[in-house]
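Apologies for my clumsy wording, but could you write out the amino acids of a protein and the tokens describing how it folds?
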Amino acid sequence: RKESSAASDVYKRQDVGSVAAMVEAESIEELAAVDRHGQSQLCAALHTLNQGKIDAILATKRVSMQVPCCAARKCAAWGETPPLHTAVFSAADSVDQLTRERSAGLVAKLAARPDVKVDAAARKTGFTALHVAAAYGSAGAENWPLLRALVAAGADVNAQSTRGMTALSLAVQRRAVADIGWLLENGARVD
């Protein structure tokens, strides 16, 4: 993937107007280009949960939700991941419950797109977006709105990572009682 200084500038500003200008100028290459961190415009917008920018980019219908992201702090551990993972990680890792709940609507919208494979796995870990929602956040934080959005979009509640971890086992590690209850009520197996 080619790197672009314009992509880097827009990444830094999170500027919806610049994205619209790129679309108007038919500079789709700039939208697909990556910055010095390996982030595309879409991945940068997903990382910051910038819904206006996400909508503007996806409205072009020329940028795919299949192009992998490198989820900022987790890139070294995960490798490249599907873009949905980036949005779920950013929502799950947010400090307040209200942000996680509001982000569930964005996650549901993204997961329902025809170009999204809701059970796509990160290369290194085998984590699906559901694993990410169950694993991240502070101890006891409630991510069930994210879990619900992903399961409603068809995520396998019993999918296993490369090490055999499930969303339930990850929620147990995080001591997320509400998430554990939600997963059990929605078909998670305890085996």
